Amino acid sequence: MIVTGSLLLTSVDALAQQTPRPTTPPAREGEVDDQEITIEKNRKIEMPAANRLFNKIPSIKPSTEQRKLTYEFNDRSLSVGDPKLSPSALPIPAAQSEQQELFNNYVKLGAGNYSSFYGEAFGSGQVMENIAVDGSFKHLSSGIGPVDGKNSATSENRLKLNGNYQTDAFKISANLGYDREAFYFYGYRRPQEIDRQTIRQKLTTTQFRIGIENVDPDRNIDYSLKTGIVNLADNYEATELDWGTNLKGSVGISDQFVALFAADAYVTQRSDGPVDNRNLFRVKPTFKYSNSLLTVTFGVNAVNESDKRQSINRTRAFPVLDLDVVPAGNIHFFAGVDGDINRNTLRTFLNENRWLAPQTVLANTEKTWDLYGGSKGELGSGISYEGKVSYARYKNFYGFNNTWPDTSQFFVVYDGDRSHVLTVSGQVGYTYKELFRSTLRADFYDYSLSRMEAAWHRPTISGSWSNSFIVNKKLFITTDLYHYQGMKGKNFVTNQIVTLKPIWDLNLKIDYFLGKQVSAFVSLNNIIGSNYQRYLYYPQQGLNFLGGLSYSF
Asked: Transcription regulation: is it a keyword of this entry (predicted)?
């Protein structure tokens, strides 16, 4: 399997600073000048790797594998130095498929330190010959946290229901989801008496999506159309209603030439104080030519963005060009240029940093252009690799920083001028007979900012190493190691810049099958035991563990 090491960055268009500014604002970062909001007409949006396209151009009668399109409902977030630590070792297909062939449903229960409780259930069934449904529920909570006991407790509940109706020509899918997260703003100064109710935050997300897509591999026209509504509400009277529709399609013109089309429409209303209507519309027509030595993709990516509160209504368009040369075997060399508009919403920001202050200023990020090049391929004996260098220009590049005077909350700081980011990334993967799989990745970032003092809380180096083992038919082991360093934050009360200590997060999970239907699991997280801070004044749990049983049926 070829490992993807690319880092797609998007740029921001609107701009704005955030929350209340200190009386003596530092270096005017994050501030958006009026002249920056002039109407521009060169806007573009880059779709998530959601091109229903494949590395090889589909012929007029492509294979099923070629026609299969990967699809993402949400557009890609600005991924410069992914701020989230989400340990998840690579799964082992052999182990999972063996269990799934026997049993489709399961229930898991577990508990651990920090007064933690875990419960998960999954069920599926065939209602009729062409109709399948499934549902899942997950609960994970910690009664106490890393500091001040219950004042840093967390709880999350997730419910998902899915349904599919499939014929020989098309598939209709629908899903309903409900998420509830409860936590506390525990980054306050100590010692201090705190009323827990004044620092409690609750995020509730409800979403419904439905779509139709082609499943006939012999059709010359491939398509996918999906639409859905997501509603977010928090504990501070903020709500965000987001309706998104995505259309993707391809038409085989010849065995070597394919026309592609992608379009997105997002209509968003955010109420957090004054009501704000923020819309984004994208159109991306491209063409792809391919032979045994060369693949060329070219086209235009255009986006219209409007924001009632910012008084913005503008359109940007950017060229899309990607070259992929295969000099020998499975070795590829690629280069290209593209641009995009990254859609920033309250929900996407909260997914990155849950401790946002109320009335956070929202603005999109524009990736004016991104020049990139690199190589990827398979070297044989189970080894694959990818290396990439990217140099991109952004407008409204953003970071997170502590608010003033309450440093326990964060606002978004935008660089309303031009910012440049150099990214060097590499990844190596190794697979041995489906018994062992390992992936090692590293990313290096260099930020050149116009108005911000630093890329607040974004790393200069990030890395991960994930491994999966099948020891025998009963014992499965996965491990993850994450590393982040170079993050900086600023306390606007003391006017001090703080460089956070490097993060090393080592995790281990062991699954042992006690029988055909019963297994035991133990998950050890942050084995190194450091109460590292991903965001200033928010130490994380040290060594924590979960243990429990799973029953399949």
From this structure: no
Instruction: List the one residue out of 10, 172, 165 whose CA is nearest residue 77.
Output: 10
| Listed residue (326, 381, 342, 299) closest to 80, CA to CA | 342
Residues 171, 270, single domain; the answer is no
Enclosing H/E stretch for 97: helix 93-102
User: Residues of 137-153 as b/e, b for ≥16 C-beta within 10 angstroms?
Assistant: bbbbbbebbbbbeebbb
**Per-residue CA distances from 299 to 12, 65, 307, 399, 503 (Å):** 21, 25, 27, 31, 41
Q: What's the total number of domains in the chain?
A: 2
CA distance 76 to 353: 16
Residues 6 or more apart in contact with residue 533 via CB below 8 angstroms: 500, 501, 539, 540
Q: Pick from 311, 339, 367: which residue ends a domain? A: 339
Q: Which of 293, 190, 176 is nearest to 231 (CA)?
A: 176
In 262-386, alpha helices (H)? 346-352
Per-residue pLDDT of 443-480, as tens digits, reads 999 999 999 999 999 999 999 999 999 999 899 999 99
DSSP assigned state of 237: S
Whole-structure pTM value: 0.83
| Cα angle for residues 133, 74, 367 (degrees, 5° grid) | 165
Residue finishing a domain among 339, 371, 400: 339
Taking all residues of the chain, what is their mean pLDDT, rounded to a whole number?
85
The verdict on residue 93 lying in a domain is: no
Q: 2 pLDDT exceeds 50?
A: no
Q: Quick one: tokens of 28?
A: 């005017």
Q: Which two tokens stand for residue 39?
A: 């109407």
- Domain span at residue 312 reads 220-339
Please check whether residue 100 lies inside any domain of the structure.
no
* Count of positions (residues) in the chain: 553
Cα 19 from chain centre:
25
Gap between the Cα atoms of 159 and 341, Å rounded:
31
For 253-275, give the DSSP string: -SSSEEEEEEEEEEEEEEESSSE
Q: Are residues 250 and 361 in the same domain?
A: no
Residue owning tokens 């992608």:
262
Name the amino acid, one letter, at 151.
N
Q: Is the dihedral of CA 506, 511, 512, 514 positive or negative?
A: positive
**Is 118 within the bounds of a domain?**
yes
Per-residue pLDDT tens for 284-302?
999 999 999 999 999 999 9
Q: Would the pLDDT of 95 be above 80?
A: no
For 501-520, write each residue's pLDDT tens digit: 999 999 999 999 999 899 99
